[in-house]
User: Fold this.
Amino acid sequence: MTAPASAEPVPSRESLQSAMDRAAAVLAAASEVAFVCHVNPDPDAIGSMLGLAGALLGRGTQVVCSWANDPMERPDWLELIGDVAPIVEGSAFPAAPAVLVTLDAASIDRLGSLEDRVPRSGEVVVIDHHVTNPGFGTINVIDPRASSSAEVAYRLIRQMELPLTDGAAAALYAGIVTDTGRFQYGAATPETLRAAAELREHGFDHARLAQALYEDGSFAFLRVLGDALERVQLVQDAGAGLVWTYITQEDLARAGASMTETDDLIDVIRTAREADVACALKQQPDGLYKVSLRSRGATDVGAIATAHDGGGHLLAAGYTSTLDVPGTIDAIVAALRAAPRE
Ligand code: AMP
Ligand code: MN
Ligand code: MN
Assistant:
């Protein structure tokens, strides 16, 4: 596959290591560090943040973590891993931190209302694995080859020889296991598996964590899934095929489900072998549709998302659409017909 049109150049091993060295020096010297991950955080965002913050806390650094959702909903899996590092509401986040670390945020706007901290901070350490990340920090530790931001954070923890509590290890593990699709995707390298194995040495309840991450939906979500599957469509003449569906705020209200429960929808519809690309449109409270795109391997969906002011990876990407459902699908179909493919 050719490099995606949307991608920043992949950094050389040397420049990545030099960024790691500078990040390690800044973090080792800081007495206080503020951490922020992307809005609507997934386990990689929260896990990489808590893992690194918890490790620094263990050596006496003052840390504070946040993300910009208001109100802030803490996912249930966090209850299993205990208090790894302090999490505060965005309103209580330092206004101008000396050292700010961003995690899993592909661009500055993914920090939501906390993006204003970036220009106000002394050093901004960006830890990420999105190929579309332009490098908005003063130090950019961005490895598009890494499975997850948690894997990058773990590398930094190892390099700095920081202590790791069981809770911090569990947080990092949650990030790795979810961003690799339970070690399924190509980005799960031998290094990823070694990192996961080392983290698994720690004393956390792996089976309960996996259950909390993967088998903790509600009955209400099954009703929403039913609505989505009833409307699912296959467009065979769009690139290598498109399978798509949508859910509305009304579906959620009728079933009594919340949007945070719908992350698995895209993983169900992407199983159809007839389509290379899967797309789920999810209506947000403001009425706009959040678009999730996945490719089975033949399409650069990151380029499509970037062209719509979103981002992500070659095979998993997203954006927020300003169009209605038919308009959004028409635009995606047009992009797929125009896109080069293998
Ligand atoms: P999702 O479909 O929400 O699971 O997102 C898939 C991938 O696309 C993730 O790696 C996200 O970080 C990225 N992504 C989703 N939405 C956006 C957006 N609005 N801007 C940038 N990246 C996004
Ligand atoms: Mn993420
Ligand atoms: Mn990630």
The mean pLDDT is 95. The radius of gyration is 20 Å. The CA atoms of residues 281 and 291 lie 5 Å apart. The pocket of manganese (II) ion (ligand 2) is lined by residues 38, 42, 44-45, 104 (CB under 6 Å).
